[in-house]
Amino acid sequence: MREKSRLVALSSMMVALGTAVMLLGGVLPLQTFAAPALAGIMLLPVLYEFGAKWALSAYAAIALLGLMLSPDKEAALLFAFLGYYPVLKKTLDSKLSARPVRIAVKLLVFNVAAGAMLFCAVRLFGLDAILDEYAEMSRAMLCSFIVLSNVTLLLYDVALKVMLVMYIVRLRPKVIGRNVHR
């Protein structure tokens, strides 16, 4: 019973923090892309302590709450389409040993998800302003944006690894306790 309470408490805290980050995304400038990435980091403790199933449940809760409550629907959609990335990263890192293949799969998933998010934003949510922004860009600028987005994903991938180590070494002993083993 105590283990289940711990599971629910930590997961709930991370969902609350992830949702708070998504809500701040609508308040602070330039948070459309940063808020979903930070909310994704909130999944790391749940993923490490309790596994992919609980982390995906936390992701679904943050995505749903973000879509319902966040004033920045573009950020909420970005999290809904890419917020599962920390779980995917763990799976791909453990299943694919060849680094170039792993990177190619991550970039493929990212680009497909970003395209699907753009389609849904315009077709389902009527966020035509996104297309207007892209229409104003030159072809070179649009290509630069896509390349920069892919580079940002790879940097986020490295940041997730660093954040997980920071959680295990610094935060976990304070939150979970030193003598608790997975």
Question: Can you lay out the helices and strands and say which pair or pack?
Answer:
Layout: H1 2-24, H2 31-41, H3 43-50, H4 52-69, H5 73-82, H6 85-95, H7 99-123, H8 128-136, H9 139-175
Structural descriptors:
9 helices; Arp2/3 complex 21 kDa subunit ARPC3; mainly alpha; 182 residues; 0% strand
Using the CA coordinates, give the radius of gyration: 17 Å
Poorly predicted residue ranges:
none
Mean pLDDT: 89
Count all strands and give the number: 0
- Count every helix, treating DSSP H or I runs of 4 or more residues as helices: 9
Order of helices and strands: HHHHHHHHH
- CATH classification class: Mainly Alpha
Distance between the termini: 16 Å
Proportion of strand residues: under 5%
Shape: globular
Output the CATH topology: Arp2/3 complex 21 kDa subunit ARPC3
Q: Structural class from helices and strands? A: mainly alpha
Number of domains: 1
From the coordinates shown, what is the CATH architecture? Orthogonal Bundle
User: Biggest β-sheet: count, sense, barrel?
Assistant: none
State the helicity in percent bands: over 70%
How does this model look, in words?
With 182 residues, this protein is mostly helical. It has one domain: Arp2/3 complex 21 kDa subunit ARPC3, CATH 1.10.1760. 84% of the residues lie in helices and 0% in strands. It contains nine helices and no strands. The chain has helices at residues 2-24, 31-41, 43-50, 52-69, 73-82, 85-95, 99-123, 128-136, 139-175. Helix 1 (2-24) packs parallel to helix 4 (52-69). The longest helix is centred in the last third of the chain and has 37 residues, at 139-175. The mean pLDDT is 89.
